[in-house]
Amino acid sequence: MKIALAQLKSESGNVEANIKKHLDFITKAAKAEAKLIVFPELSLTNYEPGLAKDLAFEENDPKLDIFKKYSTTYNINIALGLPLKLEDQLHIAMAIFKPKSELLFYCKQYLHEDEVQFFQPKKNASIIQFQQKKVKLAICYEVSVDEHLENLNSEKPDLFIASVAKHKKGMKNAQNRLQFISENYKITTLLVNNTGLADGMNCCGNSFGFNASAKKIAQLNTEESLLIINAE
């Protein structure tokens, strides 16, 4: 299955512009015959915890309808980042669109200490089936949390995919971690990062993938780009 990692430069707080950019990336991924496209953490708003409350999406937010349409029209699965309000609690979430299917959400279960003043964690399933592939999802800080990995042997996912917003030092640590996961669990690991300014930090891109033998199969530079990986 071809998977697209959408390394984009989101505009802080400009949801309308970010939606347009997402749709452009989805169209390009579909033309490249990708069956799943994954965006960085909080990609629809940019990673801006201080703005998240005012920019939060509801479960049935009409602004998300266009992604349902694109998913079905282009026969592509879409996983994008947004702040999600559920029962008066704010979560870092991944909205998951499948062709001709109901909208799903994966919410971040383990928060970095800098996020707890803005968001709440939420226990929920991190395994999602995309066509013939079972995927373990992680949002940024979760990559480093041992508890997030403790069921990997029993869950037996085909892929581990992380959606992040990281600067250069954070990406170095994340790369080491995903290589470790690949080596120890014998699965392909992919990570998509954003690029540009977010929450006062310079996100460095460098999205990448390791195969099930812990060998790097592809990596982007710091520029906004789309990385297509054929995940066996």
DSSP strand content: 25-35%
H-E order = EHEHHEEEEEHHEHEEEEEE
Please count the beta strands (DSSP E, at least 2 residues each). 14
Helix content: 25-40%
The backbone outline, from C-alpha atoms, is globular
Q: What is the end-to-end distance?
A: 6 Å
Overall tally of domains = 1
Low-pLDDT residue spans: none
CATH architecture: 4-Layer Sandwich
Predict the CATH topology. Nitrilase/N-carbamoyl-D-aminoacid amidohydrolase
- Computed over alpha carbons, the radius of gyration is 16 Å
Strand order of the largest sheet: 5-4-3-2-1-14
> What is the highest CATH level, the class?
Alpha Beta
Largest sheet, strands/sense/barrel = 6 strands, mixed
InterPro entries: C-N_Hydrolase, C-N_Hydrolase_sf
Domain CN hydrolase: 1-232
Keywords: Hydrolase
GO molecular function: hydrolase activity
What would a concise description of this structure say?
With 232 residues, the protein is α/β, with parallel strands linked by helices. It has 6 helices and 14 strands. The N and C termini lie close together (6 Å).
What does this entry look like structurally?
The protein is of the alpha/beta class. It has a single domain (2-230), classed as Nitrilase/N-carbamoyl-D-aminoacid amidohydrolase (4-Layer Sandwich), CATH 3.60.110. It has 6 helices and 14 strands. The protein has a 6-stranded mixed β-sheet with strand order 5-4-3-2-1-14. The longest helix is centred in the C-terminal third of the chain and has 18 residues, at 168-185.
